[in-house]
Write the structure tokens for this entry.
Amino acid sequence: MNFKQFLKTKGAIGAIFMGIFYAVMLLTIFLPGYKALPANMSELKIALVNDDQGEYGAKIAAQLRENLSFKTIDTDLSNKMALKALEKNEYALVIHIPENFSADAQSGNGTSIDFTVNEASPSSVSSLMQSVVTNINNQFSTTFSQQTAQNILLQLNVPEQQAADLAAKIENAYTGNYIIMNDIPAGMDNTMLPMFLTTAAYVGSMIAAMQLVGLFRKHRTEMSRVRLFIYVQATALLIGILAMTAEVTISYMITDINPGVLWKVALQQVLLYMTSFNVCAIPIFLLGESGSILNIPILLIQTIANGSSIPRDMMYWPYELISYITPMYYSVQAYITTMFGSASPAPHILGLVGVLAGALIINILLASRPLKNVKSAKAT
């Protein structure tokens, strides 16, 4: 066999195809997906709460509404309501102007504004909001210091101690309080744990789907397809439990995960595995071995659409659509809430269950299709 003949073999052709296919899929999915960051930052929603009844608070609120580039800046709610919505990641930032803001500004005792972010959210959100808050604080510090300085300059020939006190007033004219809700332990291992756990289960289930559905297709004429389908699902469940044990153990040994939530993580990991298995099984039930190729772009899209780094509000519509009908988004968000948040993960768990139910129904229908190719083979 010469080199030209070798290149024409099925294995060589498959390797060449997969090498090109994977590279093309990765670049065409990742580059447009991450282009949304930070280009679509204006799609994030923030809340601006002004509890000050004086002139200064109204001016600051008006200035923020005019200068901030967010399309949605909600102002008709209380600080308590805004923080509760932030806890559920309905807002990326809550800005609170306290009720004594104008009085403090006029007295020269120093003013402050509270900026609250939820770190139990997509990683890009907290970093983007920190940058926004830094810019706001720099502008306000300059503005209030200049205003205080102008008032001081009106007082000439003041004693040395009084001058020092006035200088301190200039320095402390404005303070921006950056408040973190649901602080995540330091280390990228903790930040990325929800995504890594999800990806580990999904990739493992994708490989299992290729093998187990292949066994189903191979033996479907030898026994009841109902029984064989149950065997496939039961084997997937067994693999999911074994894989979960290893994944949770390793996560506990390496990261700072709270031991009190391990049982919740374990249950979700099994649910995630079964959901991912049935999603990955659909193309293989439908197309056979070639269906496994389709699972690659579906996986790659979810690595962006899972919301670990980019929230839904910032995603371009194809990625946002995928996030609703695939399991990784629901899993990552549920893990973020369970491990680091204070809100209930129930909506995301229900989303995961919904995807499982839909995929399972589709697989049942595909597995029960008439075997046309088998009938034609028997006829010949």
